[in-house]
Amino acid sequence: MGAPKEMNSLLYAMTKKPFIGRTRLMKFIFFVDAVSFYQRGKPVFEPEYLRMPQGHVPPAAYSVTGEPNDFFDVTYPKFLHPHYGFHPKIDPDIQVFSKYELFLIDMVLMAIGNHTAKDASKVTHRFKSWEENPDGSRIPIEQCISGEDEWKVLEESGAYLGEFQKFFKLQSIANAISKENNPDDVTLLTRYIDAFERELDVFIQSYPVDSLSEFYDAHLAWDDTIRLALQGDPATVSQLTSDHCDAFYFVTGGLSTKMITVPDIGTYCKEYYSKLEETREGLLKQKTPSYRYPAGGVDNIVSEVMQVSRNLAMQSPSGEMIPCLISSIIM
Fold it and tell me: DSSP character for 85?
C-alpha cells in the first residue's frame, strides 16, 4: 500500500476500535470515501471498489489486512472467534490528515461502532452498484452510490452528509481553471462561489455562534484571495478551493454533529484566516504587471456588501428574512 493516509487510517481505526474486525474495517474505508466524494467530489483513499459478497471492498486495504506486516499483526478467524483481529505495531500518524479528513474519519468510526459487521454490510447491499454487478467487478467511487434515496440510506446509517449537496462541482471547475484558464470556467466558478455564500448565510442563521462569525471573516478572505488568484495565478485556484471546501465541511460538520467544540472551531478559523492572508500577500507580491489590484471601486463595494450580508446573517433569527439595504453602500 503506497498511500500513507490509508495505512494510517487503518492503524487509527484499529487503535480506536480494537475489535473492529475486517468487514467493518473495509466498510469504514468505503464510507469515508463515499462521504468525501459526496461533499468534495473526490475520495480520501481509493478511486474504485470491488464488488464482493459482503459489499464494496477497497482493494488496497483488503490486500494489506490479509496477513501480518510491518504495521500490524493479524489474527485469523477461528471457530470460537469468527473475526479477524488486528494489533497495531506502531501508532498512527494523524498529521497526514487535514482537520476535515480527521473529523470525517472520527464521524464514520462513530457510525460504524453502532453497527455489527453484518448490519454494515446490509447497508451497502441496498446500493444498485452492488445489486447489479457480479462479484469481482471494479466500481469507480463515483458510481458506488447514486441517487438521493441511496445517499439517504448512508445518512440514516449514521454518516453526516450535510445540507450542502455536491459542492464538488466548485472543485471540478477550479481544477479545470488551474489546468487551463478558460473565461467561461471563471464565470461559472464565480456563480458557484455566490451559491456557496448563500448556503453559508443560511447555516449562520441556524447556528448563530461567534466561531461562525470568524469563519465568515475567513470566507471573505478566501473570496478576496481566489479572485486575486483567478487574475494573477490561476494554477493556485484548485488548491485554494480544495482547502476552502475542507474548511467549510469541517466547520459546518463539526457544529452540526457537535463533535468539534465551538472554541476549537474558533481557533481553527483564526488559523485558517491567517493562512489565507499570507497567501493573499504572496499573490499580491507576484501579481503580473498587467493586473492592478484596485484600492477601491467595485472590489471595495463587493467587500462591503459581503460584510453586510455576514452581519445580517449573524443577527437574524433562524429562518427570518431581513432585507439587505445594499443601496446605502453603493450610493
Answer: E
